[in-house]
Write a structure and sequence with these properties.
Blueprint lengths: L11 H23 L6 E5 L5 H9 L4 E6 L2 H10 L4 E5 L12 E7 L8 H11 E12 L6 H13 L8 H4 L5 H10 L2 E15 L2 H5 L8 H7 L3 H14 L8 E14 L12 H7 L27 H9 L4 H12 L4 E6 L3 E6 L4
Parallel strand pairs: 1-2, 1-4, 2-3, 4-5
Antiparallel strand pairs: 5-7, 6-7, 8-9
Helix pairs in contact: 1-2, 5-10, 12-13
Bound molecules: S-adenosylmethionine.
């Protein structure tokens, strides 16, 4: 997909009203559809403001969740939104800064269509999951089922025919189940399946629908920001005329996404089941999670669990903002995250940031 100058992802706070509130509903459905076992290591690619990471943390009883996104602004919002046990890193989905075969599940919500080469991005996700691990994603069906965006682009094209080049339904051919299946198969994944996810998008009134388009985040709001006030009003009026209203003025539409999943090929015993303790130890080398003093626990971030390997000492040093080479090395190894340093944040305890030395 060719990136457009309107594909802006910078201010996480304004994303919530535009898309985050609907993205969360889709993430809930997606997690239900995946129906994964407890105690897995999840990587959320293109985590944005942390919507899917938070849902996985709340619902899937994960062993570990790490979100990765290119936008520093969105990752900043994600860090403030996700539970303390979830980590968010600034990094490029096309070159994940994590080791091969160290995750049980790699997921991506509403992001695949924004990546320059979806098949390469999915192959990159496949690289980092263990044999038998799951790679799954969902994307809005911009061409048909994503009600308010479909109506927005139809209204925009009605008033400005050149907007057709920006129409997400035309740009993002990958957002159809056949294309998603092909991308997953081309990335070498097996047992590929797709499913529709439909969520209600109910707006209190037209202002509730329109105002988020003025906030500048994402392709449609980015396009609106480029219009003159008069042209913007024309699009608004065309959209207003196109949406059905209920008696109380509210607007009830639906948004459909397509979910896709597949597994990294395995010769026997394939499953989405959690790694057995000894298997997990193998995947992570000898390095368990910091503070991981009981099987299946992520351990406290910035707290320091007690165990025989001195992890509490490592965490104490990190929490004091002085990880030291040995501690930083261990933490990198534990998370399979390369090129990242642990920094102390006053409010969030330990956080991860990418540095240049990958
Ligand atoms: C529509 S948002 C989805 C965010 C979140 N997953 C959700 O469901 O709400 C798309 C996200 O893709 C991210 N993104 C775009 N290109 C990226 C890349 N090359 N690497 C990592 N993230 C990328 C953007 O920064 C943005 O946060």
């Amino acid at each position: 997909m060719k990136e457009q100058r309107f594909d802006v992802w910078a201010a996480g706070a304004t994303y919530e009203r535009y898309m985050g509130r609907w993205s969360r509903l889709a993430a809930e459905e997606f997690a239900t559809w995946l129906n994964c076992a407890d105690n897995l290591r999840w990587l959320d690619v293109g985590c944005g403001t942390g919507v899917l990471s938070a849902v996985v943390t709340a619902r899937c009883r994960p062993r570990m969740v790490v979100g990765i996104d290119r936008s520093e602004g969105f990752v900043g919002s994600a860090r403030a939104a996700v539970p303390l046990s979830t980590h968010c890193i600034v990094a490029d989905a096309m070159s994940l800064p994590v080791r091969d075969e160290t995750w049980d599940v790699a997921v991506s919500g509403l992001t695949l269509n924004f990546l320059p080469e979806p098949t390469a991005a999915v192959a990159e996700m496949a690289r980092v999951v263990r044999t038998g691990g799951l790679v799954a994603a969902y994307v809005w069906d911009y061409a048909e089922g994503m009600g308010f965006l479909r109506r927005f682009w139809d209204a925009a094209i009605e008033t400005d025919p050149s907007a057709v080049a920006l129409d997400e339904g035309r740009r993002f051919a990958v957002c159809r189940p056949e294309r998603l299946s092909k991308v997953w198969a081309d990335a070498g994944l097996v047992d590929v399946s797709t499913a529709p996810i439909e969520v209600p998008t109910v707006f209190a009134d037209f202002a509730d629908l329109w105002e988020p388009f003025l906030a500048g985040q994402g392709p449609a709001p980015g396009y609106v920001a480029s219009l003159t006030p008069a042209d913007r009003d024309q699009v608004r009026d065309a959209l207003s005329a196109a949406v059905p209203r209920r008696l109380d003025g509210s607007i009830a539409l639906t948004a459909r996404a397509w979910a896709v999943s597949g597994r990294r090929a395995v010769h026997s015993g394939a499953s989405c089941a959690p790694a057995a303790p000894e298997e997990a130890g193998g995947a992570l080398g000898d390095h368990r999670l910091p503070g991981d003093h009981r099987p299946g626990s992520l351990g406290a971030r910035g707290g320091g669990g007690q165990n025989a390997h001195g992890r509490s000492r490592i965490l104490s040093r990190c929490a004091a903002g002085i990880p030291g080479r040995a501690a930083e090395y261990r933490l990198r190894r534990s998370y399979g995250v390369c090129g990242a340093v642990v920094r102390k944040s006053r409010t969030r305890g330990l956080t991860w940031e990418r540095n240049s030395s990958k």
